[in-house]
């Protein structure tokens, strides 16, 4: 099933040709309308006409997170005020937000890509989508909302939180598909368990589109088991429309990245040099269709690699592997490089572990991993808990090379947030 079969199965040569035309057009437009880029081109002695092949993309400057903040609020916008239709922002971790503008064409194009994703994942206009992402400045809910409407689904704009209400909506309107973050999906799974609701018997759920935060295969399995759904990984970022950049098809072996809209590169996060296909590095994206705010070679900081070979689904757009972390969320603990995702992978593979955890760094270089237990393993038997604690610490040490302190806590006691989960609290005095 395809939303736009011609474009989704376009042969490599035609796709390359289309990308080059769109890249050249984008470069000409930013050179004319965005002083930030025209000044960069001038300083590098680069003329827009010098981009003659896709490989020439390497001659273009990178755009970073800091560039977006420095040009806040509208320094990177390429259209006059009357063509600006929608504003989203992205908060990131520190400082000023990033402002992202959409023209009418951008809003339509973003919805078009979402419609492709939803059909690719096996949903149709007969499905009922409960959109549990945050509505507002965050792209997550609205971009999905418009795309699902374009496909013709009934969309329930539930927003996040208020699990009682979410459950009622699911029961009363027979929701078949969910859109949420992995952390809220796990939280909601806990809620259903406490309520003794068996989703397979009492609800009509069949698919969940999960993204906006990194998560592991182990977490995917936990969500699938607890909610009785198939989970599809959904990747995107505000700078490139929000959700709908890359999404899993029904083969679920990596996420197809819509290459007619985005030019993808994988670079060495330290040097910025392109890496050979298949190697793991930082994803760099150039928008090829964005009108209001085109962005060249955006350093996403997301670490991934390209899945080799063709996909059984027949789509030609290349796939990226699950994001394994961000080049800037790496922690250095007693000299070892540690990615929070490594810790999640270990924890979520253990049945005794519940659905939430928190990594706390304190003092000089002390790492404590607070781990919620599952209801079944929270039995108050001291021997059992002590054994479990040391088992988890050993498994973590085998994965991350340092042995953290492990603190076991009761199910449902660690804080949860409505937006993106905060997995690390760093209060070290280094
Ligand atoms: O999170 C857009 C989005 C909304 C994607 C809903 C999917 C679903 P931002 O707030 O700008 O936009 O955050 C983008 O979130 O660079 C990644 O680090 C992370 N991220 C998004 N999706 C995934 C995913 C939205 N599936 C940043 N796996 C990105 C891992 C993800 N990380």
Question: What characteristics describe this protein?
Answer:
single chain; nine-stranded mixed β-sheet; 12 helices; 21 strands; binds 5'-O-[hydroxy(phenylacetyl)phosphoryl]adenosine
Bound molecules: 5'-O-[hydroxy(phenylacetyl)phosphoryl]adenosine
SS class: alpha/beta
Helix content: 25-40%
Q: Strand percentage, roughly?
A: 15-25%
The radius of gyration over CA amounts to: 22 Å
Instruction: Give a count of the beta strands, DSSP E runs of length 2 or more.
Output: 21
* Sequence stretches where pLDDT stays below 50 over 5 or more residues: none
| Count of helix runs | 12
**What overall form do the CA principal axes indicate?**
globular
Strand count, sense and barrel status of the largest sheet are: 9 strands, mixed
Distance between the termini: 54 Å
Going across the major beta sheet, what is the strand order? 4-3-5-6-7-8-9-14-13
Average of the residue pLDDT scores: 95
Itemize the secondary structure elements and their pairings:
Layout: H1 5-8, H2 12-33, H3 35-44, H4 65-70, E1 86-90, E2 98-102, H5 104-120, E3 128-131, H6 139-151, E4 154-156, H7 163-173, E5 177-180, H8 182-194, H9 199-202, E6 207-211, H10 217-227, E7 230-237, E8 242-248, E9 255-257, E10 262-267, E11 281-287, E12 298-304, E13 306-307, E14 319-320, E15 325-326, E16 331-333, E17 336-338, H11 340-348, E18 353-362, E19 366-373, H12 382-400, E20 405-409, E21 424-426
Parallel strand pairs: 3-4, 3-5, 5-6, 6-7, 18-21, 19-20
Antiparallel strand pairs: 1-2, 7-8, 8-9, 9-14, 10-11, 11-12, 12-15, 13-14, 16-17, 18-19
Residues 90, 133, 139-140, 211-214, 233-238, 242-243, 300, 302, 323, 326 line the site of 5'-O-[hydroxy(phenylacetyl)phosphoryl]adenosine.
């Amino acid at each position: 099933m395809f939303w736009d079969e011609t474009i989704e199965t376009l042969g490599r040569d035609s796709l390359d040709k289309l990308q080059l035309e769109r890249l050249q057009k984008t470069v000409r437009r930013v050179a004319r309308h965005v002083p930030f880029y025209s000044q960069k081109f001038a300083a590098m002695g680069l003329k827009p006409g010098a981009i003659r092949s896709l490989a020439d993309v390497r001659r273009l400057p990178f755009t970073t997170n800091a560039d977006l903040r420095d040009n806040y609020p509208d320094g990177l916008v390429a259209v006059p005020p009357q063509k600006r239709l929608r504003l989203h922002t992205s908060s990131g971790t520190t400082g000023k937000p990033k402002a992202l503008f959409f023209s009418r064409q951008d809003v339509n194009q973003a919805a078009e890509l979402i419609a492709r994703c939803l059909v690719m994942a096996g949903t149709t206009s007969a499905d009922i989508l409960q959109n549990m992402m945050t509505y507002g400045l965050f792209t997550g809910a609205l971009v999905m909302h418009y795309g699902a409407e374009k496909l013709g689904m009934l969309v329930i704009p539930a927003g996040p939180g208020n699990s009682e209400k979410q459950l009622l909506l699911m029961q009363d309107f027979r929701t078949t598909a969910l859109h949420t973050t992995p952390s809220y999906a796990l939280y909601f799974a806990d809620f259903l368990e406490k309520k003794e609701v068996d989703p397979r018997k009492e609800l009509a759920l069949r698919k969940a589109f999960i993204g906006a935060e990194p998560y592991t295969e182990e977490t995917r399995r936990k969500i699938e088991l607890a909610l009785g759904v198939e989970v599809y990984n959904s990747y995107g970022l505000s700078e490139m429309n929000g959700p709908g950049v890359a999404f899993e098809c029904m083969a679920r072996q990596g996420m197809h990245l819509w290459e007619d809209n985005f030019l993808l590169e994988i670079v060495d996060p330290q040097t910025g040099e392109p890496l050979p296909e298949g190697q793991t590095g930082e994803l760099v994206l150039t928008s090829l269709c964005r009108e209001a705010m085109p962005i060249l070679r955006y350093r996403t900081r997301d670490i991934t690699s390209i899945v080799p070979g063709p996909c059984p689904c027949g789509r030609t757009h290349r796939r990226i592997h699950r994001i394994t972390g961000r080049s800037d969320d790496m922690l250095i603990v007693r000299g070892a490089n540690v990615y929070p995702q490594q810790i999640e992978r270990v924890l979520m593979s253990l049945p005794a572990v519940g659905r939430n955890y928190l990594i706390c760094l304190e003092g000089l270089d002390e790492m404590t991993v607070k781990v919620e237990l599952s209801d079944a393993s929270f039995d108050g038997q001291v021997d059992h808990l002590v054994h479990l604690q040391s088992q988890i610490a050993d498994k973590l040490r085998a994965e991350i090379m340092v042995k953290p302190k492990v603190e076991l806590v009761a199910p449902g006691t660690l804080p949860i947030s409505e937006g993106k989960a905060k997995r690390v609290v760093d209060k070290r005095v280094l």
